[in-house]
Amino acid sequence: MAITLNSGFKMPIIGLGVWRMEGKDIKDLLINAIKIGYRHFDCAADYQNEGEVGEALAEAFKTGLVKREDLFITTKLWNSDHGHVVEACKASLKKLQLDYLDLFLVHFPIATKHTGVGTTASALDEEGVLDIDTTISLETTWHAMEQTVSMGLVRSIGISNYDIFLTRDCLAYSKIKPAVNQIETHPYFQRDSLVNFCQKHGIAVTAHTPLGGSLANTEWFGSVSCLDDQDLKGLAEKYKKTVAQVVLRWGIQRNTIIIPKSSKQERLEENYKVFDFELTDEDMEFIKSKDRKYRTNNPAKFWGLDLYA
């Protein structure tokens, strides 16, 4: 299954996020994911593993497992490179060993002190607060993103972690409309107003953290996952599926693209098996009632300020 973006390109509705995947394990994980059926991989300069992802992709192409045109590869511009968009894009392409990106996203709607192209440590000021660059507007950043399309480096461009206000502004000043807005959304943080606004204006929504972060966000942010919800466990029993599969299926039926991450083979397989059942309208409404407006991924822990305040 795929969603046709406003750029005309098709984006697989399920992908594999590579956040927090490390080292030598990445190659085996990605190769196995491709064998399972994954054709969409969500990367970012900030994940600091584009080089390892590139090695895995090169092997997949070399062995004939897939062709480049079979895959949809996303990566993201880091905050410190807002003034160096084209250079950052080229740096990511080199690490990924690709000639073009299927999708290039502005990772966060904020520019920070430049620390060198491709370096992603968040510069903090003397008070331990994120060193924000107030000289670069998001409009300037976006027009540089548009340049990557005209140069043939990127097929589609988009935004990430943008709210309705910022998304509306981007629609107003853009020559090339954002194809995607990647946001945190899951049963505990549904954000219907933002999802509906984007979809109404032709912007596809990708759900990062579609399972509510599970153990990863519990470890980093101390958050609670919807996977432990007793009512959702009951639904999973009804469908003879796991809670994760029910939650991912809910995301698909909202017409959002889902990019769960996992470093375990059995979870990769489990997360992909979401096309052989369908939630009833009643159960979709029931899950809608579970919304807590509860964000699980908040980088304030690392940046010394809450950008969402």
Automatic annotation (TrEMBL):
**What is the protein's species of origin?**
Helianthus annuus (Common sunflower)
Q: Which GO terms describe its molecular function?
A: aldose-6-phosphate reductase (NADPH) activity; mannose-6-phosphate 6-reductase activity
EC number(s) per entry: 1.1.1.224
Q: Where is this site: Lowers pKa of active site Tyr?
A: K76
Q: Which family does it belong to?
A: Belongs to the aldo/keto reductase family.
Q: What are the positions of the active site?
A: Y47
**UniProt-listed InterPro entries:** AKR, AKR2A1, Aldo/ket_reductase_CS, NAD(P)_OxRdtase_dom_sf, NADP_OxRdtase_dom
Task: Please report the stretch or stretches of sequence annotated as the NADP-dependent oxidoreductase domain.
Answer: 14-291
User: What is the protein's name according to its record?
Assistant: Mannose-6-phosphate 6-reductase
Q: Which residues does UniProt call coiled coil?
A: none
